Amino acid sequence: MKPCQEHPFVNRLGPLLANIGRLHSRRADHFMEHLGLYRGQAFLLMILSHHDGLAHNEIAEKLEISPAAATKVIKRMEALQYVQRVPDPSDERVSRVYIQDAGRDRIRQVRQAFEEINAVLVDGLSDDEQKTLISLLQKVYASLLAYEGENRTIPAPGEPADSQLSIGGVV
After folding, report:
1. What whole-number distance in Å separates Cα of residue 24 and Cα of residue 77?
2. Residue 97: how many other CB atoms lie within 10 Å
3. What is the residue-averaged pLDDT of the chain?
4. Taking the chain, what is the end-to-end CA distance rounded to the nearest angstrom?
5. Considering the chain, what percentage of its residues have pLDDT values greater than 70?
6. 77-135 pLDDT, tens per residue?
7. What is the DSSP string of the chain?
Protein backbone atom coordinates (compact mmCIF):
# COMPACT_ATOMS: atom_id res chain seq x y z
CA MET A 1 0.00 0.00 0.00
CA LYS A 2 1.57 3.29 -1.07
CA PRO A 3 1.11 6.72 0.54
CA CYS A 4 -1.48 8.90 -1.11
CA GLN A 5 0.33 12.00 -2.40
CA GLU A 6 -2.73 13.49 -4.11
CA HIS A 7 -4.73 13.87 -0.91
CA PRO A 8 -2.76 15.82 1.72
CA PHE A 9 -5.57 15.36 4.29
CA VAL A 10 -4.56 11.69 4.57
CA ASN A 11 -1.31 12.82 6.20
CA ARG A 12 -3.35 14.67 8.86
CA LEU A 13 -5.66 11.73 9.60
CA GLY A 14 -3.33 9.77 11.89
CA PRO A 15 -2.42 12.72 14.11
CA LEU A 16 -6.07 13.79 14.26
CA LEU A 17 -7.22 10.32 15.33
CA ALA A 18 -4.38 10.12 17.86
CA ASN A 19 -5.33 13.49 19.34
CA ILE A 20 -9.01 12.51 19.54
CA GLY A 21 -8.06 9.24 21.23
CA ARG A 22 -5.77 11.00 23.69
CA LEU A 23 -8.41 13.58 24.64
CA HIS A 24 -11.08 10.90 24.95
CA SER A 25 -8.79 8.81 27.18
CA ARG A 26 -7.92 11.79 29.35
CA ARG A 27 -11.62 12.63 29.81
CA ALA A 28 -12.44 8.97 30.52
CA ASP A 29 -9.65 8.75 33.10
CA HIS A 30 -11.00 11.89 34.78
CA PHE A 31 -14.50 10.40 35.02
CA MET A 32 -13.19 7.03 36.20
CA GLU A 33 -11.04 8.72 38.86
CA HIS A 34 -14.20 10.29 40.30
CA LEU A 35 -15.73 6.81 40.43
CA GLY A 36 -12.65 5.39 42.15
CA LEU A 37 -11.74 3.24 39.15
CA TYR A 38 -8.92 2.89 36.69
CA ARG A 39 -9.84 2.53 33.02
CA GLY A 40 -8.93 -1.18 32.99
CA GLN A 41 -11.25 -1.81 35.90
CA ALA A 42 -14.10 -0.03 34.11
CA PHE A 43 -13.40 -2.10 30.99
CA LEU A 44 -13.49 -5.29 33.06
CA LEU A 45 -16.91 -4.37 34.45
CA MET A 46 -18.22 -3.52 30.99
CA ILE A 47 -16.93 -6.78 29.53
CA LEU A 48 -18.51 -8.78 32.36
CA SER A 49 -21.78 -6.89 31.87
CA HIS A 50 -21.95 -8.53 28.43
CA HIS A 51 -20.17 -11.82 29.28
CA ASP A 52 -20.55 -12.58 32.99
CA GLY A 53 -18.67 -15.65 34.18
CA LEU A 54 -15.56 -15.39 32.02
CA ALA A 55 -12.38 -17.21 33.00
CA HIS A 56 -9.20 -15.23 33.76
CA ASN A 57 -7.58 -16.04 30.42
CA GLU A 58 -10.73 -14.93 28.54
CA ILE A 59 -10.70 -11.65 30.44
CA ALA A 60 -7.02 -11.15 29.65
CA GLU A 61 -7.73 -11.72 25.97
CA LYS A 62 -10.65 -9.29 25.89
CA LEU A 63 -8.69 -6.63 27.80
CA GLU A 64 -5.64 -7.32 25.61
CA ILE A 65 -3.38 -7.70 28.63
CA SER A 66 -1.34 -10.57 30.08
CA PRO A 67 -3.08 -13.18 32.26
CA ALA A 68 -0.99 -11.98 35.22
CA ALA A 69 -2.16 -8.39 34.72
CA ALA A 70 -5.75 -9.58 34.39
CA THR A 71 -5.46 -11.46 37.67
CA LYS A 72 -4.19 -8.30 39.35
CA VAL A 73 -7.17 -6.27 38.07
CA ILE A 74 -9.59 -9.02 39.10
CA LYS A 75 -8.11 -9.23 42.62
CA ARG A 76 -8.43 -5.44 43.06
CA MET A 77 -12.03 -5.55 41.87
CA GLU A 78 -12.76 -8.50 44.13
CA ALA A 79 -11.38 -6.56 47.12
CA LEU A 80 -13.87 -3.79 46.28
CA GLN A 81 -16.62 -6.44 46.10
CA TYR A 82 -17.39 -5.54 42.48
CA VAL A 83 -16.66 -9.06 41.25
CA GLN A 84 -16.35 -12.54 42.69
CA ARG A 85 -14.21 -15.44 41.55
CA VAL A 86 -15.96 -18.79 41.60
CA PRO A 87 -14.28 -22.14 40.85
CA ASP A 88 -15.46 -23.67 37.59
CA PRO A 89 -17.40 -26.84 38.49
CA SER A 90 -16.10 -28.68 35.42
CA ASP A 91 -12.41 -27.71 35.89
CA GLU A 92 -11.18 -26.79 39.35
CA ARG A 93 -8.03 -25.22 37.91
CA VAL A 94 -10.21 -22.48 36.38
CA SER A 95 -12.09 -19.77 38.21
CA ARG A 96 -14.84 -17.73 36.64
CA VAL A 97 -15.46 -14.06 37.40
CA TYR A 98 -18.97 -12.77 38.11
CA ILE A 99 -20.26 -9.26 38.73
CA GLN A 100 -21.58 -8.55 42.21
CA ASP A 101 -24.29 -6.02 43.12
CA ALA A 102 -21.76 -3.27 43.87
CA GLY A 103 -20.21 -3.90 40.44
CA ARG A 104 -23.59 -3.58 38.75
CA ASP A 105 -24.07 -0.21 40.44
CA ARG A 106 -20.65 0.90 39.18
CA ILE A 107 -21.49 -0.25 35.65
CA ARG A 108 -24.46 2.11 35.57
CA GLN A 109 -22.20 4.98 36.63
CA VAL A 110 -19.52 4.04 34.10
CA ARG A 111 -22.10 3.89 31.30
CA GLN A 112 -23.48 7.26 32.30
CA ALA A 113 -19.99 8.78 32.31
CA PHE A 114 -19.26 7.46 28.83
CA GLU A 115 -22.63 8.60 27.55
CA GLU A 116 -21.60 12.10 28.60
CA ILE A 117 -18.18 11.78 26.96
CA ASN A 118 -19.66 10.36 23.77
CA ALA A 119 -22.27 13.12 23.65
CA VAL A 120 -19.42 15.64 23.62
CA LEU A 121 -17.73 13.71 20.79
CA VAL A 122 -20.71 14.16 18.49
CA ASP A 123 -21.92 17.54 19.71
CA GLY A 124 -22.78 19.63 16.69
CA LEU A 125 -23.21 16.64 14.36
CA SER A 126 -26.61 15.77 12.90
CA ASP A 127 -27.96 12.23 13.29
CA ASP A 128 -26.95 11.50 9.68
CA GLU A 129 -23.45 12.87 10.27
CA GLN A 130 -23.12 10.71 13.39
CA LYS A 131 -24.14 7.60 11.45
CA THR A 132 -21.72 8.49 8.67
CA LEU A 133 -18.91 9.09 11.16
CA ILE A 134 -19.48 5.73 12.85
CA SER A 135 -19.65 3.95 9.50
CA LEU A 136 -16.43 5.55 8.27
CA LEU A 137 -14.56 4.90 11.52
CA GLN A 138 -15.65 1.25 11.44
CA LYS A 139 -14.19 0.98 7.93
CA VAL A 140 -10.95 2.56 9.13
CA TYR A 141 -10.86 0.17 12.08
CA ALA A 142 -11.51 -2.84 9.83
CA SER A 143 -8.72 -1.72 7.49
CA LEU A 144 -6.27 -1.43 10.37
CA LEU A 145 -7.25 -4.85 11.72
CA ALA A 146 -6.83 -6.40 8.28
CA TYR A 147 -3.46 -4.68 7.86
CA GLU A 148 -2.37 -6.14 11.20
CA GLY A 149 -3.65 -9.55 10.14
CA GLU A 150 -6.19 -9.67 12.95
CA ASN A 151 -9.39 -11.55 12.39
CA ARG A 152 -11.93 -9.71 14.54
CA THR A 153 -15.46 -8.78 13.74
CA ILE A 154 -16.51 -5.16 13.70
CA PRO A 155 -19.70 -4.57 15.66
CA ALA A 156 -22.66 -3.24 13.72
CA PRO A 157 -23.85 0.26 14.68
CA GLY A 158 -25.60 0.07 18.03
CA GLU A 159 -24.12 -3.36 18.81
CA PRO A 160 -21.86 -3.43 21.89
CA ALA A 161 -18.16 -3.78 21.30
CA ASP A 162 -16.11 -5.70 23.82
CA SER A 163 -13.30 -3.46 24.31
CA GLN A 164 -12.98 0.17 23.33
CA LEU A 165 -14.85 -1.18 24.75
CA SER A 166 -18.12 -0.80 24.64
CA ILE A 167 -17.84 1.53 27.37
CA GLY A 168 -20.47 3.97 26.51
CA GLY A 169 -21.66 1.91 23.84
CA VAL A 170 -18.11 1.94 23.62
CA VAL A 171 -16.95 1.90 20.06
Report:
1. 24
2. 26
3. 85
4. 26
5. 81
6. 999 999 999 999 999 899 999 999 999 999 999 999 999 999 999 999 999 999 999 99
7. ----SS-TTHHHHHHHHHHHHHHHHHHHHHHHHHHT--HHHHHHHHHHHHSTTEEHHHHHHHHTS-HHHHHHHHHHHHHTTSEEEEEETTEEEEEEEEE-HHHHHHHHHHHHHHHHHHHHHTTT--HHHHHHHHHHHHHHHHHHHHHHT---PPPPTTSPPTTTTSSSS--
Integer Cα distance of 34 and 13 in angstroms: 32
Q: What's the sign of the alpha-carbon dihedral 97, 57, 170, 159?
A: negative
pTM over 0.90: no
Q: How far is CA 31 from CA 39, 72, 109, 111, 170, in A?
A: 9, 22, 10, 11, 15
Phi and psi dihedrals of 86, rounded to 5? -130, 130
The CB density around residue 159, as the number of other CB atoms within 10 Å, is 11
